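User: I've been trying to design a sequence by hand for this structure and keep getting stuck. Would you show me what you'd pick, starting by listing the structure so we're on the same page?

Assistant: Good idea, let's start from the same input. This is the structure you sent:
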């Protein structure tokens, strides 16, 4: 009589591969990749492109408001050809005086209520933050500022929400 070999009778469980250390290493690697990644914030500054119109020009002279940025300060021009109407020098700390610019823009808006466009012309190389601060001083009407009322199509007085919100860059330097 033949006997079956003993090693065939014993059934050993199959060895499984231990994946826990490999998965731990992968998760730690992913964690370090995420922690070392640089997340940047991208901001957009809206600016309109000048539009050529086919409508006939009106008899009303355009304001043609221009703010030029110099090393010595800010100059405000109006009209075609442009003429200087306000010089705003840098303050005592050597920084641009955004508050004086904002106050002068409020005075201009009270005179030219329907005007919305301004040309921003940096003559010197300036930092991005300064351009944004100039744009804010020219564009935004703060809640603490005097109210400016503009007549709509129906003749109703509505408070202005912005000063000169259509900003066009006249000269961009790299």
């Amino acid at each position: 009589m033949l006997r079956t070999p003993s090693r065939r009778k014993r059934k050993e469980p199959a060895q499984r591969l231990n994946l826990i250390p490999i998965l731990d290493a992968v998760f730690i690697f992913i964690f370090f990749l995420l922690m070392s990644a640089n997340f940047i914030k991208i901001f957009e500054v809206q600016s309109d492109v000048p539009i050529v119109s086919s409508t006939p020009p009106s008899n009303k002279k355009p304001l043609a408001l221009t703010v030029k940025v110099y090393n010595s300060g800010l100059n405000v021009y109006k009209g075609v050809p442009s003429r200087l109407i306000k010089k705003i020098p840098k303050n005592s700390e050597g920084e641009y005086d955004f508050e004086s610019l904002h106050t002068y823009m409020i005075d201009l808006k009270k005179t030219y209520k329907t005007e919305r466009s301004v040309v921003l012309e940096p003559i010197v190389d300036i930092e991005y933050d300064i351009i944004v601060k100039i744009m804010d001083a020219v564009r935004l009407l703060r809640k603490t500022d005097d109210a400016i009322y503009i007549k709509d199509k129906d003749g109703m007085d509505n408070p202005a929400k912005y000063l000169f919100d259509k900003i066009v860059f006249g000269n961009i330097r790299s």
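That's my pick for every position. To get oriented when you compare it with your attempt: The chain has a mean pLDDT of 81. The longest helix spans residues 20-36.
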